[in-house]
């Protein structure tokens, strides 16, 4: 584990940092506008959510049990979703459909942060001649907000489990800067190592360096992006396919993370009083 505080580095010369109407039954009060539609949507998403946790598919009875819906309602919703391509049915078992994959691929973890970070991340990749990215933790998994992969380089997806993520420079930054008590930290580092990491990251110029700790032949340097509320909005990272990092790279990554953070804080200036509980 290697944490360093690099002096801020200016960009290279010339580089650009870049309702429906209510209906009444014969008896009872009128149905409020949208009430029936909300019920159908709730049921449809309950079906999809249950299928999202069933890699081997699920039968109708088990699906009804998982959603808490009547079996007839579950069947009707599931079949409607099959016709729409959101669900597929194979040998009487339901699975998430291709349409949901297409929709899910368009999901952006943080659209505002992406818009702010795209140009600086692109410039970082150009100046470092390496893969540059900005990532966040979402449900204990790394999610890429934006990335630039120079020609001739390969983009390597992040590990899936929290223990492997925490061995990377990006994972250490993101886990170590979570609010105290909100997370169960991975056990690949001791409590003392996590505490030291949190202390070191108080320095606004701090970076975390991975000398092939996660993947042989790959080094990374990562720095936190701070929002105005004192929380870490993401981790700016450069990945180098080499046995060591080029001189000056930690300072360049730290500079880029600071630039993204400054732009983010400018947009968040109307937010409530900062909460820096993670540093306590």
SSE layout:
Elements: E1 2-5, H1 35-52, H2 60-67, H3 71-84, E2 87-90, E3 93-96, H4 98-104, H5 111-128, E4 131-138, E5 141-148, H6 162-165, H7 169-176, H8 191-200, E6 206-211, E7 219-226, E8 232-240, H9 249-267
Antiparallel strand pairs: 1-6, 2-3, 4-5, 4-8, 6-7, 7-8
Helix pairs in contact: 1-2, 1-3, 2-3, 5-9
Task: For this entry, give a set of tags.
280 residues; alpha+beta; Arc Repressor Mutant, subunit A; Beta-Lactamase; 6-stranded antiparallel β-sheet; two-stranded antiparallel ribbon; 9 helices; 8 strands; disordered C terminus
Please give a structural write-up:
The chain is α+β, with helices and mostly antiparallel strands and 280 residues long. The chain has two domains: 35-104, Arc Repressor Mutant, subunit A; 108-279, GAF domain (Beta-Lactamase, 2-Layer Sandwich), CATH 3.30.450.40. The chain has helices spanning 35-52, 60-67, 71-84, 98-104, 111-128, 162-165, 169-176, 191-200, 249-267, and strands at 2-5, 87-90, 93-96, 131-138, 141-148, 206-211, 219-226, 232-240. α5 (111-128) packs antiparallel against α9 (249-267). The longest helix is centred in the last third of the chain and has 19 residues, at 249-267. The radius of gyration is 24 Å and the shape is elongated. The protein starts with a strand and ends in a 13-residue tail after the last helix.
